[in-house]
Amino acid sequence: MADLIRARESVALSEGYHSPQLDVDVRLNTNESPLGPPAGFSDEVANAIRSVQWNRYPDRAASALRDAIADLHGLVRSQVFAANGSNEVLQTLLLTFAGPGRSSAMFEPTYALHSHLSRITGTQVAIGERLPDFSLDLQEVESVISQQHPSVVFLCSPNNPTGMVDSRADVEAVLKMATDSGALLCVDEAYAQFAPWSALDLVGPDVPLVVTRTYSKTWAMAGARLGYMVGPDWVVSELEKVVLPYHLDSMTQIAGTIALRYLDEMDQRVADLVAERDRLVAGLRQLDVVVWPSGANFILFRPDPRPGDEVWQELVDRSVLVRNCASWPRLAGCLRVTVGTPAENKIFLDALTEVLT
Q1: Is 309 domain-assigned?
Q2: Over the stretch 278-335, which tens digit does the pLDDT of each residue have?
Q3: pLDDT (tens digit per residue) in 65-117
Q4: Rounded distance, CA 114 to CA 150, Å?
């Protein structure tokens, strides 16, 4: 039967998107928050869930959640789209504005899901290259957009896995190129709270720009799978035609709404992680590794001259898990470490020092 019924070629030839889930003492490979939600959050969510009418479908419009997100950013509900993680937001965006006969553009190295989701939605992928320091090459961006005429252009800032923050001037330049070409620009800001600026400032009713965010990082809610997009209301209204009905369950909506009441705690946690990131960078620079600057909650580095694959395995042997990025475009030998707690970061640095000496 498997010989007769086959998946689409774009799916069958895909390896999917995976990261190892190993039983280790220190897990620093998926950019999660090293700490759980603030004190009181779980109790507040548990109390709120008691009022859920489980025999009824959830609020299809996710009204309370979207209102809370809109208030956070000084917007209105019609400018906010929420879904099961920012990846579902990206997939819905591609299903709506890309798909068969259309293309999306991205600039490597960057977040692997942009190309993966494009392919599984039947979207052609146009790939450009970043500069040697992983910053945007505006000439390359212009060439890709003018020659390929993508329907959706992706930027990831801070960029995963490099940590690079695209400058406001560069994002504005790409936005103008996309606008002139009739494309929609999507700036993926999963790590925006750790960065010095946000493209949210550029969103407007007549601007073909959307910005995606996630609860998985700074809000310490990776287990809830909640993300959202901010953009013009005409984009949001089109996405609502495509997304599955009742896709966002009641518990997720409740948790996401309550989380936004803990803004002060989140801001302090971000500040603490940024300070810890700087200490981790300083520690890495004392070792035989190449380190890239980061505006996110992770750091890209390459052992030199030790092979990255060997270093990754020796860290696992010491019960420390980081991300092996060797198979990603232009990242041969590179590893990525999530900023953890001070104790976790010390264990990682001690283990890496032992491996490299």
Answers
A1: yes
A2: 999 999 999 999 999 999 999 999 998 899 999 999 999 999 999 999 989 999 999 9
A3: 999 999 999 999 999 999 999 999 999 999 999 999 999 999 999 999 999 99
A4: 13
Which residues are within 8 A (CB) of 58 and not within 5 positions of it... i.e. 6 or more apart?
246, 248, 249, 250, 253
CA 203 – CA 207 distance, rounded (Å): 6
For residue 260, with 0-12 CB atoms within 10 Å meaning exposed, 13-18 middle and 19 or more buried, which class applies? middle
pTM above 0.85, yes or no: yes
| Residue 355 · residue 33 · CB < 8 Å | no
* First-to-last C-alpha distance (Å) of the chain: 54
Count of helices and strands (H, E) across the chain: 12, 12
- Whether 1 shows a pLDDT value over 70: the answer reads no
Q: Of the candidates 203, 235, 262, which is a domain's last residue? A: 262
CA distance 85 to 256: 11
The reply to whether 235 and 276 lie within a common domain is no
Separation CA 218–CA 298 (nearest Å): 12
- CATH value at residue 80: 3.40.640.10
Beta bridge partners of 50: none
Instruction: Please report how many Cα atoms fall inside a 13 Å half-sphere around the Cα of residue 159, on the Cβ side.
Output: 21
- Classify residue 191: in a domain, yes or no: yes
The DSSP secondary structure of 165-220, one letter per residue, reads PPPHHHHHHHHHHHHHHT-EEEEE-TTGGGSS--GGGG--TT--EEEEEESSSTT-
* Domain span at 200: 51-262
| Alpha-carbon span 189 to 251, nearest angstrom | 24
- CB of 120 within 8 A of CB of 90? no
Instruction: State whether 83 and 231 are in the same domain.
Output: yes
Over residues 146-203, the pLDDT tens digits come to: 999 999 999 999 999 999 999 999 999 999 999 999 999 999 999 999 999 999 999 9
Amino acid at 293: P
Sheet with 184-188, strands from edge to edge, namely: 80-83, 227-230, 209-214, 184-188, 152-156, 103-108, 124-129
